[in-house]
Amino acid sequence: MATTLPSIACLGVIGRNNNPLHISIFNSYDPSTTSFRPIRTPLQFSLLLSSTLDVFELRSRAHAATGTGLTGDFGLLHAVDERLAAYGFETNTGVKFVVVVDMRGRRASTTSGVVGEAEGKRSNAAGGGTTAGVGLREGEMRVVFKAMQAAYIRLMQNPFYDPDEHSPVSGPGKKITSRRFGEDMRRIGEGWVPGVASL
Amino acid sequence: MDEYPAGSLDHSVPFLLTLGTSGDITYQSGLSAVLKEQAILIRSELPPLDSDQAHALLRYIQDRDASNLPCNGRDAPKKHRFRVRTAERSILLPPRRARLPDGIDMPSPTAVLHSPYSPLSPISPLYPDGLIDTQWIRKHQDLIPSVLLCFYTLVSDPTLATLNDNKVKTDVNNIRGLLSQSGYKTRLAVVLLSDKISPSGDHVQDRLESLRRGCGIDAKSLFLVPPGDSKEELERMAENMLTTLYTASLEYYRDLGRHSRKKRGRGVAPQPTVPPTSGTSQTLSLAGWNVRYDFKSAIFAEYRQEMDVALRSYEQAYENLLSSELMEVIPSWSPRWNEARFLADVLAVRCLRCLLWNSQHSAAARRWQFHRERIADFLDRRGRGTGNYGWEAWESRWALIMANLIEKASIPDFAPATHKLYLQPEKSVMGERLQPWEFLHHTGYWYRLSAKHMQARRDFAHAIPEDDRRSPSMSPASFVAKSAFAYDTYMCPDPFEEYPLHQGGVDHGRFVVDRLMKARSEFLKREQVRLAAEVSLECARELGLAEEWSGIVKLLRPLWKDLPFRSEGWATIAELLSWNLRAAAVELDDAELVLTIDWELLNQTFQKRPNWEYDITKSLDDIDTESKPIVSIADGQVLPFISATFLFREEEGKAGQNVRTQLAIKSNAHQGSAPVSLSSLYLNFTGCLDRIVIQHEGGAAVQEKKGNTSIYAVQLMSDDAEAEFTDLGATSKSVILRGDADLTLSPGQTLVFNLDIPLREPGETEAQSLVVNLDTEEFDLHHELKFHQTPKTNFWYLSGSTTKRIVRPNPLAIKVLPRPPKLEVKCPVWKDQYYTDETINLEFELTNGEDIEALAKLDATLFGENPPAFTVDIEGHDSQTSSSVRSEESKLIGAPLGTIGSSKTLSIQLGIPPVDRSSQYDLTLKVTYFLPSNPGTPITQTAAFQLNIVNPFEANYDLLPRIHPDPWPSLFDADGVRSAAPDDDVPLAFKGLSQSWCLLTRYASFASEPLRVVDIDVVLSCLPSVRCHAIKHNNLPASGEGRLVEPKTIEEAAFELKAQKASLDERGPSPLDVSLVIKWSRPESSSGQVNSTRLPVPRFNLFGTEPRVLAKVEHVFVMERVVVVLTVFIENASNHLLTFGLTMEPSEDFAFSGAKETSLSLLPVQRRGVEYRLVPFDEEEEGRWVGVGLVVRDKYYQKLLRVVPGGEGVRGTKEGGLEVWVPGGRQREGDGGEEKEG
């Protein structure tokens, strides 16, 4: 039986110039101590988000060559190990959203497993008696990106937010300091469970 | 994979052994000592082949060895896969049945002996309850060939042929006999190599047939290599042979597999030869036997490359192995426990290989994870748990194995060129909920995972208590006993070897670095530079622990230098890099690197390290340097803590002037860091500005200091000395401007320098960079900061607290205009209008405003429609006249003006001759001059004037007929009429008709100012046969000094014209051209220059033969009453006798005397007058016009003739009538006489 469910470990917003605009880190369930704490340090998450830029660049090049990828949804960027995987989305202004999912970040009992039933079957089929977590369907992250984009659009609508200040023509800019945007990210990161329809 | 026993995980490839020729690698049976003495020797009696052909064939076969080929199903079209070994003369085969060891008697004569690899044989390490081990796998892989290929020579010499053939037959039969004795079903094949050209085909066929029959082998196992064939032929033949042998080989393994399945199908556990007497006396259960049989079937299927079959059997074996009947019942202290675990690993690896072979990549990743979970769960329940170094060691190994398997499978989608990081799941699992990790990632990720577990292993190892780390020989026995079961030592050393108390042990760091470097190279291959950097950082941490400093620098320095973490704002990562690199650089005494890093880390963007002394001057305290390091930091190389902005106050400047500029440098250093005392600043420009050097001067006066902002007004001195600062690539300019200021920069402080920079040459100039120099006793540091265009920084410090935004688009640049000419061209008296017909004299003044004298030239151009040639008079030079190049341009070029002294004035006279019509000209004066200080550069001053020339006057004209007082000459007076014959000597005597006219002109001044009109005259021009003269009547003073005429007022002037024809015979009309000449002068003109403006008057016609009626009045006072005497003259200039009727109509206004109706006959050339006296009826005060109904009619033509007024007091009406003036009573009193009114 799956005892853990995926959760969001980190949300990152990266600017047009590959500059970090916002990073939110979330707690993951640690079964050894049965406590909740971030699975990595902020520095490690920074490195992780930065490494996704490689993937964005590779994919953009591939997309440009084939003329695909118009939705901006990059899907799975890569999985850094069996637990953490990064999913990406790029807006047409070059702002990138990265979701780092911890595949075992949530205790199954604490949440009403939306997909628990189906998942149990799959694990059993694979041999049963394992602690392998719930998998993710293709496009499962789309709802998160949609919510992030909505939050970002809300931020852009704020007349005091100057996008040029945050992603100037050259060089890094400021980070997002909006409290509301941070709260939005927190809400999205904490609210997501696999299969959720809207955030 | 290396840690597993050799051969345990290798892909099973059919085994081909050649016998009879020697290869490079000699054959080693590899049998253990115990088995060796029981082994079966198969020996060929014939000498080994040593021909080139035999070697070539052997080499070809060896080259086709498939044991190292990629393990995937895509290359299946290969016709054969063999693992090739070569034996020269003899081979050893393991015994089919193991003898009982000494000391054990056969329990019964009926007891069966078993294979030495079976748990049934007491000599086997598996006896009595082991499952299966590597030995068995190796038996088939290395010891028992599926095909034994024997090389023999086919002797072509007919004398020896039969003998040799018999020898071969004997040898082959011998080998075959030995093989069948051994019990193995190895296929025997023979290859014959002809030594010479075969004599004839039939003969050879017969020999082959005889050989085949004699050896007892079938046709498919006998091969002939014809002699002397080409290499291609040999290869083709060898290829065919291998393909044929491969079929036989597969058949061999199929037989073995069938045998295993048959044994499994029996469903009973065989009994060992000797019942076990030691240990638990337990024998292998039936479930165990099933695992063994399944495993065997799977291996044989793998030999046949039936991977699906193999996978099924492996999975079956795996499930049974981990079932409650097998592993669950093995106690964890038993060596069988680890053997079972090992077998599980082997099964899992072989399963993974089958999955990868079939391109089931996601299934493979899932299978990998599944085995891990399964074992972890198993260990947690039954074993020593997963929280120990043994488990992490296994995890690390498990990830590494996956990396090796993926490499071995050589998946084309993972070729670096595809840039794929992971594979899409195969169709069968698509659409399922997949773990991200189940998308099979490339090996870099697996290596990294392995390294991570290796690090965890070390962490666990370092947590081992000291007691356990002692060597057992030094520990009390009780400890040994206790620790023996406390640690999971599956395929890893005991705690006292893993991490001994004193030294040595497992070098985890090396393993970690090894794997990380492999991961890094994989990431780099796929352009994952940032991830590679992250791995490099992890690697550097390991190297740091191992104190391999140079390795760290080698690894991190390129990243630190090239990667965009800094420019993209990932400060934390850049910082991590810097600190790691600095630590290594300090150890290596790399002063340059340490300084650069320290310089950068002063930036507040980075997190402040607690308990760290931020003072750049102390950076080198722990470093030994041989020479004084000089560090040059280029722009963008580090994230500078000093930001510099530069502004030009103005957008444009002029050469020779100063421009105000402001340089501001701001320290963004950590609060609490030591102030940096810069030695100097170099300000560099592109274009034509000099370099500016601001040097540190401790006591320099601050202009203003407020808060953290200090403003300095820096006085710049030019310094011609060639400075030693050329090392920074600045162009060596001859002039350097120097200034002094206090350059001590505390954290958060802003230094503002106001600079007045002299501009020297024209052109675009842009501030390019600032070089910050820090020269101390220990080191010199130069950092170049380029100025960037950012609208946010365009602030001009007005004072310490107030700034002003400079809104120009590029305040870093200034446009330097050419040096402005200081020589002025002025016209002191310039008028808006000049007039036609006057000589225009213009006076210009050239004032030299330069500091020194100027050598000047003048170009003057008059541009317009047909400009007149003008003359220029220059003091001290001859006057010059312009030339006209084109019709619209009159030009004077290069008139020398000589030298004009400083602040001296030169005046120029420009004379333009009178222009006869109004026009506009553009006058351009261009003065080009040179200064002796810069003789190469011409300086040009241009002045343009617009010259408006207008007509000062306009006039209109009336020509009124008058009655000539003289009587007409009479035709009958011959003397008076006949003129003398024309003669040159005698002037022409005019004896023709005379007429009198009055020319009335009204003229107005259109000038912008009053003009003095001196005289008005007319110029008459008529035919020579007419003489004409004028008498002028104007209101100008007679003194001749004229009268000022105000603009736009109308003046009148009248002229009395008298004209007379020369001859009476000539009476036709004759034209008269009149021009009005107004002589005038400007009132202010002292010279009294009088200009005459000539206004042409439209042409008049005098005379004519048509009859003319003229009327004139006179006023006569008779008895206090006015009597108007109206005289009508009728002139007949024709040659006809004309009769006119005159009718005077009575009027209510007056009474008249004279003929009321009369007729008048006129001879040719006659004038007659008729007089009427009119007496007005009522006297009035005012004078008035009274209409007179006088009609003159040509009786012959019945044509009315118009009565034309011929003097004052008569006027015509519009209707053709006539009016006369009747003066009023008042006028009569005033004048009392004849009156004339107009």
Describe the model:
The complex is a heterodimer of chains A (199) and B (1238). Chain A is 34% helix and 25% strand. With 199 residues, chain A is α+β, with helices and mostly antiparallel strands. In chain A, strand 5 (73-79) and strand 6 form a beta hairpin. Mean pLDDT of chain A is 82; it is low at 110-132. Chain B has six domains: 15-68 and 78-266, no CATH class; 286-561 and 569-578; 621-790 and 804-817, Immunoglobulins (Immunoglobulin-like, Sandwich); 832-943, Immunoglobulin-like; 953-1102, Immunoglobulin-like; 1108-1231, Immunoglobulin-like. Chain B is built from 22 helices and 56 strands. In chain B, the strands form 13 sheets. In chain B, strands 8, 10, 13, 14, 17, 18, 21, 22 and 25 form a nine-stranded mixed beta sheet that branches. A six-stranded mixed beta sheet of chain B has the order 27-36-35-29-33-32, with no helix packed on it. Chain B has 1238 residues and is an alpha+beta fold. Chain B starts with 14 loop residues before the first strand and ends in a 7-residue tail after the last helix. In chain B, helix 2 (52-63) packs across helix 6 (231-266). The radius of gyration of chain B is 67 Å and the shape is elongated. Chains A and B meet through helix 1, strand 5 and helix 2 of A and helix 10, helix 12, helix 17 and helix 19 of B.
Core attributes:
A: 199 residues; alpha+beta; Beta-Lactamase; five-stranded antiparallel sheet; two-stranded antiparallel ribbon; 5 helices; 34% helix; B: 1238 residues; Immunoglobulin-like; 6 domains; nine-stranded mixed sheet; elongated; Gryzun (chain B); Gryzun, putative trafficking through golgi-domain-containing protein (chain B); TPC11 (chain B)
